[in-house]
Amino acid sequence: MRNIEATLPCLMRFLTLTIKCMVSNSFSLAFVFLYNCIICSIFHIHHWCNSLRATIVSSFFSPVGVVGDYKEGYYIGVDVAENDPESKKPFNGPNVWPADGVLPGWRQTMEKFHHEALEVGKAVSRIIALALDLEVDFFDKPEVLGNPIATLRLLHYEDQFSDPAKGIYGAGAHSDFGFITLLATDDVMGLQICKDKDAKPQIWEYVTPIKGAFIVNLGDMLERWSNCMFKSTLHRVLGNGQDRYSIAYFVEPNHDCLVECLPTCKTEKSPPKFPPIRCSTYLSQRYKDTHADLSVYDKHQA
Ligand code: OGA
Ligand code: NI
User: Fold this and answer.
1) CB within 8 Å of 19: residues ≥ 6 apart
2) The model's pTM
3) What is the helix, strand, coil percentage profile of the chain, to 5?
4) Cα-to-centroid distance, 237 and ligand 1 (Å)
5) Is the CB of residue 235 below 6 angstroms from any atom belonging to ligand 1?
6) Which of 45, 72, 76, 185 satisfies CB 3.0 to 4.6 Å to 246 for a cystine?
7) Which of 68, 40, 108, 83 is closest to 292 using CA atoms?
């Protein structure tokens, strides 16, 4: 509003001078003042519109006090060729790779990582099955993890300092949507977990990186599947002024896998809390609910 307040006295001054000149029959001078008056209004109205637009955009599209995450990433999914009918399913499609000759061998390394990390994910799923009194291969079978939605994210956090009080995070507090996440990090501290999501105030603890080890995060889909026997891991990333790199590998079941309260996680006293849902429906819904519709920015630019 500062600009409109600045505009009015300025316009009034030019208009008064214009009228005075017209009264005194000095029309050329009146024209100069009128011209200045129009230019001045255009200038101020232009600035005022910009500031109003900025206010509208920031108040409608950013939650109060949240400036946003500054993490950036390169995402690699399960590679499905465009002419394969499977590519029409959500989360499927051809990956975007650097042009031939750029980073020789990099694509092969990433594909090998993707492939082998899935085997680690399946091994962890066997431990989870045992912990839930299920058959050891409950998750590690073709109908569940045979054709998984698995995504590799190569993440970079630039050398900023996070400031939770100002809503500036490498990655704000969240739990991952899916089944499990395998996380490999460099040795720059940054990842924090909150063991009790409902505690007030929440207590955040750093996770010390261990060379050669994966951190395993349990996702919201596992929480739902296990009728909340397992809680998903609430976590966030704070920057400490150093560049930080991590690799997150998200393991989600097949598109059509039915996520339905596990047989060992319900009793008469504790019936299923959630209805059954297909894996890809659940994930699509979660992404839709939490990611801004970026087309609103295009509309504002137009
Ligand atoms: C994520 C995430 C943590 C990290 O990508 O969901 O929580 O250490 N990453 O980069
Ligand atoms: Ni995460």
Assistant:
1) 30
2) 0.77
3) 40, 20, 40
4) 7
5) yes
6) 185
7) 68
Q: Whose CA is nearest to atom 10 of ligand 1?
A: 246
Q: What is the pLDDT of residue 68?
A: 79
Where do we find the tokens 């059509």?
A: 256
Interatomic CA distance for residues 186 and 21, integer angstroms? 73
Asked if the model's pLDDT at residue 208 lies above 90, the reply is yes
Is the predicted pLDDT of residue 295 greater than 70, yes or no? Answer: no
**Residues near ion ligand 2 (Cβ under 5 Å):** 176
- List the structure tokens of 80: 């499905």
d(CA 156, CA 2): 39
Peptide bond into 272 cis (omega under 30): no
In the chain, the amino acid numbered 256 is: D
List pLDDT tens digits, range 41-76. 333 333 333 333 333 333 334 444 457 789 999 999
- A 10 A CB-CB count for 187 gives 10
Count of H helices and E strands in the chain?
Answer: 7, 13
User: What single string gives the DSSP state of each residue in 21-44?
Assistant: HHHTT-HHHHHHHHHHHHHHHHHH
